[in-house]
């Protein structure tokens, strides 16, 4: 929490000062009572002592005073609010390694299928675009609010060769920033890359692309798909087949997320990938904003002071 007028917090020094003063007055009151009354006769005069009830109104008063002073200091807090407009670009790796079946039905199939669940977790007003990349980065679907078109674009993805990861990040970031809200402003843009993390080819290096996305203010979240057991079969001349191991390489994707301010996830099966989408959908559906909360403290102070006054009147028949 931060404050626009932090010097006003010096007023909190009044609270311990009042406590000390109250303690001094209580001792003086006790001494005066002993001076003018016989201790053995007190039980016959007063049937019971208010005990803690006598001190509670003052405690409530001090809490109200504390809230009031903090309110005067104009506090700010970071709160979460629902986003009404944003653009999300799904960047899907369609390189040959994504055909591995270590994640059922395949890495690409799992990414493609569960991405539809992701589309259902983000607000309807969000625009969603799809970029596929193998040897080239291709805009499969420009940003749109039509979820049916987005699902259709995902369903058409097929594996190819190479992995132009850096090119895809640049294309996706620039694609999202071309969008405009109704008021002409550029809505917040996020990129979600789904890949097994092994860059191969392309004109732009992945970390160079991450720096470019950072300069554009576009966070890139990354999901690495696959297990160490992943393999692909490559047909050779003469009817032979070569089996190539394709373990995921998460380090590059983790770096991209760190550089751009996105998040990094690991998905080793369709269920974990679905969980990733749900978390990202929830995160993208809201935003953290800095907001002044003076009114909340002022309102709280009024309520607490009224409660203190009411307790004092009901229990002690006096105002604290």
Structural class call reads alpha/beta
CATH arch. level architecture of the largest domain: 3-Layer(aba) Sandwich
**Unreliable residue runs:** none
* Backbone shape: elongated
**CATH fold name of the largest domain:** Rossmann fold
Descriptors:
alpha/beta; 3-stranded antiparallel sheet; 320 residues; Rossmann fold; 45% helix; 6-stranded mixed sheet; 2 domains
Commentary on this structure:
- The protein has 10 helices and 11 strands.
- It has helices at residues 14-36, 42-45, 52-72, 107-121, 147-155, 165-176, 206-216, 250-260, 270-284, 294-316; strands at 2-3, 75-82, 87-93, 127-133, 137-144, 189-195, 220-225, 231-235, 241-245, 264-267, 286-292.
- Helix 7 (206-216) links the parallel strand 6 (189-195) and strand 7.
- Helix 3 (52-72) packs antiparallel against helix 10, helix 4 (107-121) runs antiparallel to helix 5 (147-155) and helix 7 runs parallel beside helix 8.
- The longest helix is centred in the first third of the chain and has 23 residues, at 14-36.
- 34% of the residues are buried.
